[in-house]
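>> received
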Amino acid sequence: MDALSCSPAAITNPRRATLAARRRGLSCLGRRHAENEGPGGRAFLGCRGIGQGGVVKNEIKNAGGQRDRTAIDFSDPGWKPKFQRDFESRFDLPHLKDVFPDAVPIPSTFCLRMRSPTEEFADGYPSDEKWHGYINNSDRVLLKVIHYSSPTSAGAQCIDPDCSWVEQWVHRAGPREEIYFRPEEVKAAIVTCGGLCPGLNDVIRQIVITLEIYGVKKIVGIPFGYRGFGDEGLTEMPLSRKVVQNVHLSGGSLLGVSRGGPSIPEIVDTMEKRGINMLFVLGGNGTHAGANAIHNECRKRRLRVAVVGVPKTIDNDILLMDKTFGFDTAVEEAQRAINSAYIE
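>> returned
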């Protein structure tokens, strides 16, 4: 799965879609889920917006997507396999065909020449890009690479009191050999909502460039958040590599931001009218609650629309994500204030 294969099916269940960002790269960058928020404000990463109502679920408690310790019987000799099966079921990724059984895959249009392929292969494998340019759906990445021998070790993250080693595998990100959206039929829209965050323009730029690598020609920006779907005075902004080439050197958001907006049915009506079938939403909790509602409305209308979320937070508090954009800049600015106070 990749940027053109992400779909509402891939963003149906927040629990199961947690690792969609790692699997699809820009196609389904994660969202912050208030209903899956854990201790310390760490939220779960997923391909779909948070559910409305802000209900906090107790199914997943501690960091790493692990179950509450009290729910695990460590006296059971087979607790490790059970834990691993439970972990895999929680992070099993839905597929586009779960929602659209008639979806037909096509060969990926991702430009492999943008990569740096190696020429060395084991005997019997052709040195052709087809063999080393795409990610196999069965590829997995080890979530935790350190085997802590004791709970007292620095940074130790243990499941059981003895800090036993338990392998936890997650899907590997990257372009797949098959996609489910034809680039010539895609009209992608990008919208930034909420407040400003360092790196917004950089994310907009990379989304546009990646879509063009796939061959998508119709890319637009929705001005001033969700308001751009309801205000007739706000028109779409055509986006291309030429338009966004140097936008990452500027602060703020090229598209503008705002809070609130029209009703969900109005937004989806506008998307239908404009022919938008791929929506990239950059925002926080409230923004992704809206994205979740948009996704549900699209499903209700049986629209083949991909709603893709990018978490916008300077807090770096999203589980399973190495670093959220804007975090480094926020830390640097905080250091300036601290250093100034120290000098004073």
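>> The CA atoms of residues 151 and 163 lie 6 Å apart.
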